[in-house]
Amino acid sequence: SVAAKVERQGKSTLPATQLLALISTFSDPEVVSDADDRHHADLICGTSNFKLLGITPADFPLPVEFSAVRQLKFKGADLKRMIGQIVYAVSLDDSRKVLHGVLTSLKDHLVSMVATDGKRLALVERAPEEFSGTDGDAIIPLRAASEIRRLVENDDLIALEIGEKQAGFRTADTHLTTKLIEGNYPNYRQVIPAAFSKVLEVPTIPFLQKIELVSQVLSDSSSYVTLTFDQNLLQIQAASSEVGEGRAQLNIDYTAEKVDASFNPNFLSEPLRCSDAEAVKVKFNDGFSPVALEGGEGFLYVIMPMRNR
Prior knowledge:
eight-stranded antiparallel sheet; 17% helix; single chain; alpha+beta; 20 strands
């Protein structure tokens, strides 16, 4: 909803893509919309005048009413940050529908949001500002989660209402409803190692910059970057037969045995790009077991090294 001076009440529908394109390029501070009984609307902004052809509101599908079994409230900025920290890991593989969304789980007063594509897992946990109802899980479609992230503009409270098959997001002026993805989300906690023998901190931005720098010599999606941890030094290197090779390094606090591990560069850089933490903890046991990145409040990312040798 948006404030407007209504001179004649009524309902109409207009093509969304064209309407957004026009509103985005109008430069005058006010827009006049005047719809006739055929639901064709004149849009007037300054000296610009457009006619958009609408359809009868009776043909417009209304959202399905549902009863919420739980309600969670977050500050808008917190929810936007949570979704942004994990949404890139949602699977786009058509064969596993349950992975096409973000798992939202309430348990013991804590909300866990999870995304995975089977190759990496992103998890963020946070206590909501308010909550009511029962513990449980819901899988929110990727598109709905992405829309909410885009719509949140301030730090006002946003309510997430979850029903048996639908969910809704409410802000002061926006209400978005979505069907939930049906099915059982895999037990993601079993892929998180119970313990790590090696833990070190790496500054987020320099780490990301070095990965992106050496990735410039890679030529295809099957390429990889190799991280070498050895005596207070992290070396990052990449090579391809078509372009060449590159190498960069960072000083780190590390004195354990030398470990090499190779990764898909995009999978490694995405959590760093979406992090707001100054440093990330890198946890691992060896160069072939799952590696974890921790940074910020309640964020965890688990990735499997590539077996390229």
